[in-house]
Amino acid sequence: MDHFLYRDGALHAEDIAIAEIAQAVGTPFYCYSTATLERHFSVLDQSLADAGLEDRLICYSVKANSNIAVIATLAKLGAGADIVSQGEMVRALKAGIEPSKIVFSGVGKTADEMHAALEAGILQFNVESLSEIDMLAEVAKGMGKRAQVALRVNPDIDAGTHEKISTGKAENKFGIAWEDAEAGFAHVQTLEGVEARGIDIHIGSQITDTEPFRLAFEKVAGLLARLREKGHVIDRLDLGGGLGVPYARDNEPPLDPTVYANLIADILGDKGCTIMLEPGRLIAANAGVLVTSVIRAKQGRAKNFMIVDAAMTELMRPTLYGAYHDIKPVKEMEADALVWDVVGPVCESGDFLGQDRSLPVPDEGDLLAVFAAGAYGAVLGSSYNTRPAAPEVLVSGHRFAVVRARPDYEAMLERESLPDWV
Fold it and tell me: Bridge partners of 102?
């Protein structure tokens, strides 16, 4: 459920007409709903509580939407943060996430990033290779600290999702090979600067079936038992994220968080461990829309093109993954529809927001909303073709605020300079 609904024929974000916001900030822009962010977090948290998982920590995956206003909204609900860079840590801390609720994931942590995270006092590093463990141990020892780690293990499970968002198969770059997991934990025991406290897995994104999760959780339970038999003190299970969301408004509902929570409880709920989750898309995707204006319609012999002022620079997913996002007029229309490719002005044939969409013939300036753009929208944006970044707007009830402004061209160029020989 989201809070983007039509009232009297006009699309609203909570209690504000989208057209009113467009009039104030211009297009394109991202619009996020506070009520939807809060609801998605609370539904997941309550599902875990109802399943009896009292010892839990939901670490919002900052990479999904890293706007500090979005992170701060979730911090007020008690969320932690899953980060994959020092920059994301800076954002999380600025937004009010407690360091003791931050986990640092990712395959490419540098020594400088490790130093900064240890200095900040984060909860845990999710380490993904023996060489990373060695580097972290050296950095921590040099600081007189002991880093708490979870070893991310790759369970070699096909989550049945798109190849570019699959993370749990043997050929993916993430995690320590399943067959090497126990040796990895044994290696940690030989080092002074690190302490293994948890098992970490993440098998992919946009998962809509329980079976991959069940297989992964059963593998984790078996590994946990073997590690404890060997004397390892493991009291955290970081199960990653991955729950899918509906990208088309008439799709069947995705996996119910209640079913997911009960599955965790049935397999891992009696192990005496803190259950940690890293949702991102689940929280943010349907909490945001991308609003764009029609520049012109171009009816051709082979295709009809609706050219809008948003592009792959604002929403990369259709170009990158062939992803589908619902596109609807901001003002409901009863006019006859044609089939259109909704495309941006970027000078690339791959620049499209949607293909073969049935939409009314537009007038110049008509507004469209691209749904489920709250995750992997702004964060994947670029300034290709020297396009200014679209502003981000956060709505709460009847109020809205610009939480990231659109830069002017001078601001875009101020970091560039001419060398003295030019």
Answer: 81
Structure tokens at 39: 């609801």
* C-beta neighbour count of 274 within 10 angstroms: 17
Short-list 47, 25, 3, 17, CA closest to 265 = 47
Structural domain boundaries enclosing 26: 4-32+285-413
Q: What pLDDT does residue 160 have?
A: 54
Torsion over CA: 56, 59, 64, 67 (sign): positive
Three-state DSSP class for residue 28: coil
With respect to residue 257, please indicate whether it lies within any of the assigned structural domains: yes
pLDDT for 171 equals: 54
User: Reduced to 3 states, what is the DSSP secondary structure of residue 177?
Assistant: strand
Residues 20 and 67 in one domain: no
249 belongs to a structural domain: yes
- Which one is catalytic: 31, 59, 273, 347? 347
16, 122: one domain? no
Question: Looking at the domain assignment, is residue 422 inside a domain?
Answer: no
Cis peptide before 28, with omega less than 30 degrees from 0?
Answer: yes
Q: What is the pLDDT of residue 248?
A: 80
Q: What is the mean pLDDT of each run of 10 residues along the chain (422 residues)?
A: 93 98 98 98 98 98 98 98 98 98 96 98 97 97 98 81 44 79 96 97 88 94 97 97 84 84 97 97 97 95 96 97 95 89 97 96 96 97 98 98 98 96 95
Going by C-alpha positions, the residue among 79, 5, 67 that lies closest to residue 38 is 79
Does 347 qualify as catalytic in the annotation? yes
Q: Which two tokens mark 356?
A: 């073969």
CA dist 357 and 403 (Å) reads 31
The CATH number of the domain holding residue 351 is 2.40.37.10
Q: Provide the number of structural domains found in the chain.
A: 2
pLDDT score of 189: 95
**Residue 43, φ and ψ in degrees, nearest 5:** -65, -45
